[in-house]
């Protein structure tokens, strides 16, 4: 192996450099992952723009500690492993071996704080570490992001074996498919008397970039009725249709009133059962809430970083609407393995290979990031 | 019986008159109720002030059709009953008789619209009629409010037999105790991994007028841990303590920051598990949401009429907080009988007889209403 | 129209006659349905064999009141309607017209008893009437079963408009697809921590006659992982594969131990997440419970009539297993319309037209019934 | 400290000896607990009788590896602690100190197997170790049971700080109060339409030994309506009344039919909403299921060891009943701290100090065990 590792470092907002880092030593239980493919996520774009306030108002409130190696939608192969003391297991309890292809969960939790002990599967940890996000590249062993040749996988980080039959370009979707457990989460609130996600329900996905597309896919897998996608890009809306949306509305070509009216007319005037916000702009909540039926579920997932305020009416948007507004960050640890299983099993129904639209080598990471911010792409990935 | 019926009519905002109405004929299935006691509710105060936009943004959006006979928290005795065709049953299926004391559910639903057929127990009916609220006294048979000697009970209105042992002044609480099913509703969202209401949970009730007090009582009945009440009235806060609150915070004597800090310090910095909004002012949502722990439930119940907008941050207040915000109007039809059962069974634990603080005869309805808007009272009732 | 109506009457167990009945007069709200197609259900077979104890141990316990006109999986066209007093609505609130094609819900509930008022959508009514089942043909207006030219639809019976695009032979599946809401029901018990139906779950369906097949379809629509079907008929197992089963086990060709081992080996030794019993034999519970993982859900739906006892171990099968055993009769009123919507939307994924395998005219009802008891058929229907 | 530790060892069924063990060395993260009080549990009685098959039919199936030191309802003081590497935390994340009084969770889980990773809070671990139960005293460091002067607390065992104000004799209830989370668990299945535990519900507890009594207490804390206790001991039934039961039925003095009829007559003929089995005899399920209303919840918790089979009717007891039968072993890790909080907060409502009826020194452990099997005691404890 090489004596140094090359990685793309965001040294401050708007600036990416390729740097070299020493090849790391592995502590007990650690892995060295040879990165095969790593996605560019909406959060990375926020970080590029300097929009870095995350988990505001909670004990885990944080700002990005530049410089960092971004990248957290990672598929790689285990290059080295320190399992001298005990077998290193994947999340589901299976022993790992060098050469295994795995997906990484970027959220590393302490397992011992109040939230780790009292809530389940979501990383509400008070000591949360986020690969590609909250760990600076200044500190050894440095390799805490996926836009790099190798990553250092901490002993308590969760990895998941990738089934052999799953193509790399499909496997790289898994983190976002786990995010789409937002829809499974609404099933915790389900009753047959109109609460939560029911088969046949009308679902609106606001914004069909990669995260929104995965919610379209998941809604279809779960037996949704009509799925309506909104976006500013005809390119993305066309892909949304291929991935299961029944109707699309281009926000640049219609008025808010027209879109609300469209959803209501589809539902005998009532509104959608479920609306998922995957845009990441504060203002869109008003439109989404107006599209929702009384007693419907609004999933607020897109505003993962602080994007400002919006004026809402407690009466109209919450009380009279009998809304169930569910704020959701991250994704469940338990969502990776079944997501990969489902992508295999339902591969004949969805054109998964169209999800990754652009691949860039590590040296062109900045171009890749800029490209990912254009409207006519879906997932842009780094192939180091 | 008398040939006419006296009733207090709100002819327009800010104006109440005592009027006489003809003694009604009963259609099949209808009841004539001799009103024994009728509460003055927060909604009645809104109506007095002309704040009458209800169910905004839904198919049931409405404005109050003055003149009306207000009053919907009613206990009465069946004076007449038209059961010539078939037995008239109470909600639970028990045949009614003249002389029975009953509580009335003020929400009359059609039973045939989409919401009546697809949701349960809450009056999300598209053709909702609300006693004391949405039925004008101009139209025959006029007697659609509880501030009157008699009420005309429609064939499809729900009534509930009052147990003999339950004092009248306690029975009159039942409608608000049914409103407190807001807390039972959160149990539909319960999981042991930190979702919904758990025994031992910390509960904040914002505003402890009669509706808030009933939520304090219900939280205590359900096994809450610490209960914190906030209000502007020391009088009401003192009563809240007698009814089960562990801590009280006078909003007029503390800063928002102090109150948020108090709740956090009680919970190792995390925030309350459940916050119930019973104030009815848009601005209080910010404080309530800041008091809430990550993943906690915010019950928005107080803004039953349109009270304007509030600036909220989708990131901070919803997404990062992983909030479950539950808008709740009305109360379940199924909540009356168990509420009366619980008030009997737990009567040694709560000073229910202190709930009604002021009684007025029908002739002094306007004074009663003005009195109910003072800070140093709890429930004010009309005793026709 | 004809002056009399021909119907197949089961005069006692094992005996069917074609009889003629007077053309009925319609009371207010009643419909006359010209039957287009009516399925033969497992319950009908029990009735033929004299196994008629239903709802044993409940307030609704009953025996079949021979003679009856069987048949309750009905699609028909409204031939006459008495809507002189008020519009006759379908279940979802849409006005009906003569000529509309509708599906019938065979369970007619009173709407006023305790269960009608306190539970939702399932016919736990204390005064339940069941078309084709609990209403004798001796009493006027006689036409209470679907194996007839016309049916008399009571004013409070629920009917559902059939979408024009849905073929008759697919529409006739709707009652059983509504039964498969057994799987939706388990979502009420869902949490992400391993309770209830999760996407990707392993599902076993014991018995893939028509009811079992519909559960296979529904599990697939809802995003199941592996689906395993068991049956004694290779014919039915082959169809189960076409409808979405991944694996099939012929009970006549394998041992119980082999089948249990097969399911465990598919699940890393743990067992299936969900097992649905659609056989209707008491003994199969043991096998099903052994196939289930700890904490899994066992849906007991097949023993709709009394089929005797089975020896079970409270420790092994319930307590240690941490089982969630859900007894389910009937189906929800709310399940018809979304089922028809889903059958349309997912018609490219399932060969719905293969569901009905045999059609018989009314005159050959007894042959049809005998045919339906052979292993090499799926749904047998009467086309009057 | 002493150089040896005295402990009561069950060398084989029916035989207890006091033995001495070497004072242990503590590995990283381990604690040494000076036992203050340890209860005698029903499981200990089974072990005494040689009824030791646990978790039958699951991956964790086991038999007791005699000799063992029994005892798992432990309150003790931290005598030594090895926190040289890192702070030793209690379950809720608070650092521990020598001298802290703590409760122990007897179930030690690996944290890495499939069930540890996919289910929450209940010890469904495939590598479960049970203090006082599954760890033989032959193997070093021996001290794996609470009937001893000291216990060796493994690094990954969960302990919980006991609030200073909670008396020792009340604190020792905490494990069983955590078991009573069986009732909280049913809230995961709750909907307002008659599923799971609702405030005001009628609850039957079959068997009111210590475990049953704790379910009575919990049902009352959670807002139950009528609570009915059954037992063979008038002594225990009288205590059940003091702890919140409204009605008691002595099984030795009434027939099964009378008891079923009593419960039905209390509930207008319907049956109880919730029945909890705390007897541990296979046969009682029939009575319990007959007492249950349609759609009610049956909690099977008492048959923790294999007690044989019972004849049940899939139709009558499961399908027609629409039963929700919930098998429950153990208790949630998350149930200790809130249970102690609730016992403090509700101490004025329950005579908690009457729960422990007999205390014995370590030397008289065998007498204590025999005493605990008499009908006229509640909790018998060892005070080493």
Brief description of this entry?
The structure is a homotetramer of 384-residue chains. With 384 residues, chain A is of the alpha/beta class.
Question: Keywords, please?
Answer:
homotetramer, 384 residues, alpha/beta, seven-stranded mixed beta sheet, six-stranded parallel beta sheet, 24% helix, globular
Write up this protein:
Four copies of one chain form a homotetramer. In chain A, helix 8 (256-266) runs parallel beside helix 9 (284-291). Chain A has 384 residues and is of the alpha/beta class. Chain A is globular. Chain A has twelve helices and 18 strands. The two termini of chain A are 15 Å apart. The model of chain A has no long low-confidence stretch (mean pLDDT 96). The longest helix of chain A is centred in the middle third of the chain and has 12 residues, at 210-221. Chain A has helices at 42-48, 114-118, 168-171, 174-179, 181-187, 210-221, 234-242, 256-266, 284-291, 314-319, 336-345, 365-372, and strands at 4-12, 15-22, 31-39, 73-81, 101-104, 107-108, 129-130, 150-153, 159-161, 203-206, 227-231, 247-250, 272-277, 292-300, 310-312, 324-327, 356-360, 379-382. Chain A is 24% helix and 24% strand. In chain A, strands 3, 4, 5, 8, 9, 17 and 18 form a seven-stranded mixed beta sheet that branches. Chain A has a six-stranded parallel beta sheet with strand order 12-11-10-13-14-16, with helices on both faces. The interface between B and C is medium-sized, with 20 and 20 residues.
